[in-house]
Structure formats: C-alpha cells, structure tokens
Design goal:
By secondary structure, this protein is mostly helical. The chain contains ten helices and no strands.
Length: about 240
Amino acid sequence: MSMSRYERVRFFLRTLAIQGSWNFPQMQGLGFFFAIVPWLRKVSGEGFQSACRRHLAYFNTHPFFAPYILGAVAKLEEEGKGQEAAAVRRSLMGPLGAVGDGLYWGKVRPASILLAMAVSLIWPWAAAPVFLLVFNLIQIPARWRYLAEGYRSAADPHGGVARVNSRTISRLSEKLIPAGCGFIAGAVAFGTDKPGISLGLFFIAFLLFRRRARTLSVLVCLLAVALCLGWLGVRVRLPWSW
C-alpha cells in the first residue's frame, strides 16, 4: 500500500464518523466526504476542487462496510480514475448495505445481546460491558480490514466483496444465537415459579420465526440447562426479580 500507516489510521478514524452528518437528501454523503477529503487533498493536486464536487453526492450503505468502498475509491482517485471511482461508489453501496444488514444487524448484534443476557443471569452489572466489548471486538477490527482490502481490490472491487464477506463470523453467530436462546429460556424457566409459562411463551415465538433445525439445538440446550441446574441444585436469580 502506498498509503502510509499514519494515513491509514487517520482515514480509519474518520470512517467511524460516517453517520455523524446523516441527512435525508444525501444520507451518509457528508460523512463519506469527511472521511476521504484529506486523501483527495493529497492525491488530486490541481483537480482537488473537481474531486470534492465528485464525492459530495448521495451515499448510503452499511456503516461497517463503508471503509471497503472508501478504500477502493481512495486507490482509484490516487490513480487518477475519478469517474471510475464515482461509479464504484454508486455500484457498491447497495450490495454492501444488504450484506452488512444481514451480517451485523441480523447476526452479530443479536448474538452479542444474547451473550450479554446470559451473563446478566449471573452478574447483572456486566451485561452492558460484555455486549459493548464483544460487539466492538468484532466490528472494529473488521472495519480496519475492510479499508485495506478495498484499497487493494480497487482493480476489481466487486470481486473483492467476496473476500470481505465474513463467513466465519456469520457461521459463529448462527450457532450462538439458538444456543443463547436455549440457555436463557432454560435458565428463566427453571429459575421462576412458573416454568411452564416461560417455556410456552418462548416456544410460541421461536417456532414462528426459526427453522426446524434450530429448534432442535434449542431443545438440546434446554435439556442441558435443566440437567445442570438440577444436578447442581442451583436456583438462578433473575435480575428483573430483585
């Protein structure tokens, strides 16, 4: 990378504020411009003003995948391919928005919340710190990597999307979500005076929205929780009952 480490850190820190100027006409457009303008000032030379006008435009994607687009655009602007950079920005923001919503909002965030809820059954005060720690330990390194990958994949930015689609994170979250549901449901059911109601309400909702294979994993988790609690003679103290 011709981008120095200092420039990359500066660039990355600016991407964290991409939604700081969110508005309806341009969505994340001002945030995108804020992130890239120091780089444009360095690589555009006398064409700085035209480069600024080119990137003061509508932009909307998943905020965690925005660094990938910014990296690709930065490389293309460095190579003097301004119009191609604008086209890449427009063509990638939709697909990466959909990928990011499914991965981070649909899998990583629920998994982090469930983990924090499970911890809250033992240490209620630790729920929020655990959620923030787990979620940010996943998304912040990923965003750092996306910026570098976008810069390296500028010649084929659409092909590089496959490399940043984090299948490992996705598979891990898919396994953790039903297991977490099962653990929490089991702990609540066997830690209250009305376990039948707790289990019934959980399964009505779960069977409506989850596939059969996931239901089996939850049943296994419920059975494991019941056996462990019974064997240990533990009665779970629920935070909301204190």
